[in-house]
Amino acid sequence: MVVNAFVQSTRALMAKFGVDAPDIRISGLTLDSREVTTRLAFVAIKGHALDGRDFIPQAISLGAKVILAQTEDKKQHGHLEMRGNSVIISLYKLSDMVSSLAAAFYDYPAQKMATIAVTGTNGKTSVVQLVTQLKSLLGTRCGAIGTLGHGLYEGPETHYIPEPDGTTTPDPIRIQYILADFVQLDVGQAAFEASSHAIVQGRIDQVKTDIAVFTNLSRDHLDYHTSMEDYAQAKRQLLKQAGLHSIVLNAQDPESQNWKKNADKQLKIFWTGIGEVDPQFTSQSHCFATNIHYHAEGSSFTLQTHCGSAEVSIPLFGTFNVYNTLSAVAALLAQGERFAEIVNVIDRVHPVPGRMEIFSFKQTGNVVVDYAHTPDALEKVLDSAKQHTQGEIWCVFGCGGDRDKGKRPLMGQVAEQHASHIVITTDNSRSEKPAAIADDIRQGLNNPEKAILEADREKAIRLCLDKSKPGDLIVVAGKGHEDYQIIGDNRTDYNERAVIARLQQEYSK
User: Fold this and answer.
1) What is the DSSP string of 239-298?
2) Pick from 273, 315, 314: which is nearest to 290 by CA?
3) Cα-Cα-Cα-Cα dihedral of 174, 179, 182, 184, to 10°?
4) Could you read off the pLDDT of 175-232 as tens digits, one per residue?
5) Cα–Cα distance between 286 and 329 in angstroms, integer?
6) CA–CA separation, 241 vs 178, rounded Å?
7) Are 306 and 412 contained in the same domain?
């Protein structure tokens, strides 16, 4: 384990930040006082919701020998204080230097592999997984970090380790730890999701990044960011990553032009797009899809790049998965991978768990499981479902509690416009009443009386199975890969993919 491989002296570590500290051996860093041991140094910073300095007494009680504490007083930088057997080292603006501290402790692991950061409202998880799959098929040992968790890619049955706090991008210490673990496992490429929260909070400041991929921008996280422009600017901060040499941009998303304007002139841009795209992009490095055909087995199209063209097929559903595949291919071309070799393996990619994942039923409509939880994502999923069937579209969805309320009626509007039948159910309602969330969704409906309300998600899915017919598609949105549900203060086990797999067996009898 990495935690045993990286034993450092606080004297050597702190010297890199201009601090004369005692020689105490530590094997790791942690932001969580509950994880403290005599071998882990507690990093006490002022966070977005909590102030870690309030937990210093708890860390001391757990035997912490070293505590690194944030101070706003520049004169206090490097001040040492003994409390019992614990030494407290004050560090000026520690919250801004945690990524640097962790990178130094774990010996800058990102510098020892190829790295790809993926940001955007939708598609981050899929692009990370697809670029990981493709690179692995080309013979490189790969690791992935994101919404599904982190781990070494080992084929379709790969089990990723979820983050304890459920974050898309781990905290600045943990992501360096994971990358250091990848180094120990001889990983040649790490692809990771870069959420807007992670970027503005500095979690990946010192993660050397070779290639940045921007997928798209639509409404999300406005409970955290003050406006869409603030949200967009947060994403664009990825352009400041150390080591960046190439960016992959979606030619058909207007926000990409802002990325181009803010990009360093030395950065190489790879453009992606579908169908007829402005010739200005085809004269540059590009990766486009034309002549797309959607069918029961997936999608086929002409892959056109600056390196050549080829007819390809992928076992993935939906236009957005074509976009995601293009982003992944463009990232590999930016690395210098050969176009012909990518084409040879592209048909061997597999669906990402909980991302437009199809479950077949013989006597009823088939079920599509997707993580879509924004208006734009839901619209794309429903439109994609239409492309693959002549039957009716059923839509089962809810909205998360204690999150952006403004998107709820918008999601209702999207569902009504793009689905034949709507069933409003419960997502992670958290502290809010599920019925109140459902009422917010109904505000966006022109004909709310036609929407079915069923708070229990499994019952909502059963209702659609009982009423649908072969050829229909039942889109169950919002949970995707998640294996839990949060209602009130209770977090209960709920794996929608496992539930539907069980229903497959039940309905086949």
Assistant:
1) GG-TT--EEEEETTSTHHHHHHHHS-TTSEEEEEEESS--HHHHTSSEEEEEEEEEETTE
2) 273
3) -90
4) 999 999 999 999 999 999 998 888 988 899 999 999 999 999 985 545 554 687 888 8
5) 10
6) 19
7) no
Q: Which of 348, 369, 401 is the last residue of a domain?
A: 348
pTM assigned to the model: 0.84
Q: Give the model confidence (pLDDT) of 319-338 as tens digits.
A: 989 999 999 999 999 999 99
Our count of domains for the chain comes to 3
The end-to-end CA distance of the chain, in Å, is: 47
Are the CB atoms for 192 and 175 separated by under 8 Å?
yes
Residue partners of 490: CB distance under 8 A and separation at least 6:
none
65-102 pLDDT, tens digit each? 999 999 999 999 999 999 999 999 999 999 999 999 99
Decide if 170 contacts 150 (C-beta within 8 A): yes
CA atoms within 13 A on the CB side of 469: 4
Phi-psi region of 53 (alpha: psi -120 to 50; beta: other; left: phi over 0): alpha
Structure-block tokens of residue 246: 């190439």
Count other C-beta atoms under 10 Å from residue 319's C-beta: 17
Q: The tokens of 21 are what?
A: 């500290």
Closest CA to 410 of 371, 440, 386: 440
Tokens of 439: 């009422």
| Cβ 216 vs Cβ 232: under 8 Å | no
Q: Are residues 136 and 249 in the same domain?
A: yes
Q: How far apart are CA 479 and CA 259, in angstroms?
A: 31
Which H or E run contains 230?
helix 228-236
Enter the tokens of residue 5: 């491989």
**Full residue range of the structural domain in which residue 234 is found:** 106-348
Torsion over CA of 487, 489, 491 and 492, rounded to 10 degrees? -60
92 and 113 together in one domain: no
